[in-house]
Amino acid sequence: xxxxxxxxxxxxxxxxxxxxxxxxxxxxxxxxxxxxxxxxxxxxxxxxxxxxxxxxxxxxxxxxxxxxxxxxxxxxxxxxxxxxxxxxxxxxxxxxxxxxxxxxxxxxxxxxxxxxxxxxxxxxxxxxxxxxxxxxxxxxxxxxxxxxxxxxxxxxxxxxxxxxxxxxxxxxxxxxxxxxxxxxxxxxxxxxxxxxxxxxxxxxxxxxxxxxxxxxxxxxxxxxxxxxxxxxxxxxxxxxxxxxxxxxxxxxxxxxxxxxxxxxxxxxxxxxxxx
Length: 275
Hints:
- This protein has 9 helices and 12 strands.
- The chain has helices at residues 43-51, 72-77, 97-103, 111-114, 124-131, 216-221, 240-246, 254-257, 267-272; strands spanning 10-12, 17-20, 34-40, 56-60, 83-87, 106-109, 148-153, 156-161, 175-181, 199-203, 226-230, 249-252.
- The chain has 2 domains: 10-131, no CATH class; 148-272, no CATH class.
- The strands form 2 sheets. It has a 6-stranded mixed sheet with strand order 1-2-3-4-5-6, with helices on both faces.
- It is α/β, with parallel strands linked by helices and 275 residues long.
- 21% of the residues lie in helices and 22% in strands.
């Protein structure tokens, strides 16, 4: 196993911005701040932003995907009076808050953010200036439980987790389906997977800038872990049940290819190849 790397949180003391490569890194210092995160804009990530006490947040749209799951949480934040925006996944790498700030272009703004003058096509840098006037949210989202379940597929035991953060070292050797994106968080290979799994799947999050949505695949191949990404338009990001039910592979690493797994195959058929 790689040596765990301490999470790093960046901030801008002048503007009150807080940068989180993963929104799960937000802590007590988030209270009342404007957060920029590399996480996708699904329900769980938005709930994390809300419950951390952020006043407003910018997340990655992850290609939006099936049922607009990549921005569903940002929409839900408006019900709590919280401004939220999404960055076009082709303008900034998912998993990188700094790239979102430096190069991101807004692809969606919820009604609270729109009332501040934020529109599609605005740069993140300009959007943050407008978000500095965001009101304090009137409420807080309920916690969104991340599901973890063990199911049987073609006679094989499969661990389904809505977020790869639920994986532990004890899951070594398992077949794992996640709802997480396939980008390396902060570009860090040590965060590709917490366990020496046999096989793991992720959403490709629209593939995105510099093919970042596929970047966990070679990192996992170096650990001889078979890994694939699923077309974000075939299943909902953040939803492992959706991934298993309708997911279609968009890319496979060499270890997965050695099993005969390839792009265009359904996830269920890929799992069959592991038998």
